[in-house]
Amino acid sequence: MTKPPPTTLLDEFYLRFLEDEDAAGLIAAVSQYYLQATLERLARCGSWRTRRGAVLALGLLGDMDCSPVLGRALHDRDGVVRILAENSIREVWQRDGSMEQRQQLAVVTRLNHAYQFEEALELSTLLIRQAPRFAEAWNQRAIAHFRLGQYEAAANDCQQTLELNPYQFGSLVGMAHCYLEMAEGFAALECFRRAVEVNPGMEAVHGQIRFLERALDDS
Q1: Could you give the angle at which helices 36-45 and 48-61 cross, rounded to 10 degrees?
Q2: Of 34, 54, 55, 183, which one's alpha carbon is 20 to 30 angstroms from that of 82?
Q3: Residue 168: burial class (beta carbons within 10 Å; 0-12, 13-18, 19+)
């Protein structure tokens, strides 16, 4: 079946990106013609293809203010929009704070990925002192706490992350695992349920919910 022709400039930019995967070119083209507010409106109200292009562009260009729009896009009727929204909202979270703070966050994230949790804990704590409203700094410290077996501290950092960024579904999942480690099954189940309310596309979490529901019913 032949795809319908593009109806907006954003459609053209999106189709071109699908062919050449040139993110820099897409950023340059979209920046020339679209404001973030316009992209947010198109992500809510455009055709399926326009919504895809808008959500993709917001992931490349948007700031934390577009989190609510991308959060709603996690529930979009189009599956591709939902996938793009999950990728885009994660990218937006990394762009909070100043350039220096983002660079520090990148170092902390690399330390966590490299299993250097003590160093990640130390640096994330320094970053939090400098930028206490940087949600992802709290989230990365929660990861370090968790991997060091400090589950209550990790859960507290997850809670702080969510107070700053209520769309951080990963932090909800992380908090659930903290509660599981502390043998608080009902609290864990509630966090898993909250996570899929924010991002219903997390199939693994749906499975964890079903497993935990059965386990708690049998206990």
Answers
A1: 150
A2: 34
A3: buried
Closest CA to 88 of 118, 49, 125, 61: 61
Tell me how far apart the alpha carbons of residues 90 and 51 are, in angstroms, rounded to a whole number.
17
Q: Measured on CA atoms in the order 45, 29, 60, 49, is the torsion positive or negative?
A: positive
pTM of the model: 0.91
pLDDT value of position 1: 44
pLDDT one-digit tens code per residue, 77-98: 999 999 999 999 999 999 998 9
Residues 6+ apart with CB under 8 A from 42: 8, 10, 50, 51, 53, 54
How far apart, in whole angstroms, are the C-alpha atoms of residue 195 and residue 137?
20
Domain 9-94 has CATH 1.10.3470: no
The contacts of residue 142 (CB under 8 Å, 6+ apart) are 154, 155, 157, 158, 161, 171, 174, 175
Q: What is the pLDDT of residue 3?
A: 57
* Structural contact between residues 31 and 62, judged by C-beta atoms closer than 8 angstroms: no
